[in-house]
Specification:
CATH superfamily of the largest domain: ATPase, nucleotide binding domain
CATH topology of the largest domain: Nucleotidyltransferase, domain 5
Strand content: 15-25%
Order of helices and strands: EEEHHEHEHEEEHHHHEHEHH
Number of helices: 11
Structural class: alpha/beta
Number of domains: 2
CATH architecture of the largest domain: 2-Layer Sandwich
Largest sheet: 5 strands, mixed
Strand order of the largest sheet: 3-2-1-4-5
CATH class of the largest domain: Alpha Beta
Helix content: 40-55%
Shape: globular
Length: 336
């Protein structure tokens, strides 16, 4: 577009209340996140009712702080982008209600954004896309391989058939009695031991880009249970390293095969598990001797945030694709 434009993004799909202001889909002017981790840690996972109430309490403060950091007024805002789904329905509705009210009151266009599209476009905040590209989305609820041939066009070539990788991380962490959220703790523990336990790797068939982690999760749980039954002390670091190696091997190999088969110009990794140090090292190493660059968002853009929603919303803004006033949250929402 010839004229600069500024998008306000709002994200409340799970347990982060977030608002951001992004210029031209690439330049972050403000990115504010209020995390609820401490609230949910005592329960070992996100409690939807508590999440919704926390969003209601925090949304106004987060929005005000975003405008303060960006040094913007409502006159500077060209549109409001908000997460439509997927996510916790009560949580989504808080962000959507705020976005609709503000869009109506301030006479701004409203843009509905898919949460996973947001994770993908977090990468565009650091590096311009080159098409076709391959996106590996790895989070608590999603593990997918997506081919993009242009902005806003998504073709899913692989997905998890059961547990998402992030979900497996959390359940294994709970089995090892690690604090919530478990993924970062497993990642840190993995650096203290060798992957010496032969946990399974679900390759499925050679032509498939789908994933499966439920068998691995069960194998780890059974291993820990059996060791305890024998009276053996559990080496948590060894279990964590062996589990993570299994997950990372499968994610890396299938991503590599897909990148070669589809002759992509870029590989991007997105989602909360993109922050995993073991995954970053392994994929970087795998593609080191190829001509395909691999990009990861900075850590603060891996987890849920509103800058990624504004970035994804900018593509819809440029295409003139806006939401109607009957916009509603969708707990389940396909990307493709």
């Amino acid at each position: 577009m010839e004229k600069d434009y500024i998008i306000l993004g709002i994200e409340t799909s799970c347990d982060e209340t977030a608002a951001a202001i992004v210029k031209n889909g690439k330049e972050i002017l403000a990115n504010v996140v209020s995390s609820q981790i401490k609230k949910h840690a005592q329960f070992g996972g996100v409690v939807p009712e508590i999440a919704s109430r926390q969003h209601t309490e925090q949304i106004t403060y987060v929005l005000e702080e975003a405008f303060r950091q960006a040094n913007c007024t409502w006159d500077d805002i060209d549109a409001i982008a908000v997460t439509e789904g997927p996510g916790l329905i009560g949580a989504l509705l808080v962000g959507i209600s705020a976005a609709k009210a503000l869009a109506f009151a301030k006479k701004k266009p409203l843009i509905n954004v898919h949460h996973i599209a947001g994770h993908i476009y977090a990468n565009r905040l650091i590096e311009e896309f080159e098409f076709p590209l391959l996106a590996l989305i790895v989070s608590g609820g999603h593990t997918e391989l997506i081919i993009m041939r242009d902005h806003g066009e998504y073709e899913r070539i692989g997905e998890t058939l059961d547990d998402a990788a992030g979900e497996a991380f959390d359940k294994v962490a709970r089995t090892l009695e690690l604090p919530y959220p478990g993924g970062p703790h497993i990642d840190r523990l993995s650096e203290k031991a060798e992957a010496s336990i032969d946990f399974p790797r679900a390759w499925l068939d050679e032509e498939s880009f789908d994933f499966s982690f439920s068998g691995l999760k069960s194998a780890v749980i059974n291993y820990v249970h059996n060791e305890k039954q024998r009276g053996n002390e559990i080496d948590k670091a060894q279990v964590a390293a062996s589990f993570q190696a299994s997950v990372v091997d499968v994610l890396t190999e299938k991503t590599y095969r897909a990148a070669k088969r589809y002759d992509v110009k870029q590989v991007i990794v997105a989602g909360g598990v993109a922050a995993n140090n073991g995954l970053r090292k392994r994929i970087t190493e795998k593609f080191k001797n190829t001509d395909i660059p691999v990009y990861f968002p900075p850590l603060e853009l891996c987890t849920d945030n509103a800058a990624m929603i504004a970035a994804a919303g900018s593509i819809l803004y440029e295409k003139g694709r806006f939401a109607a006033w009957d916009l509603n949250g969708k707990a389940a929402l396909p990307l493709t």
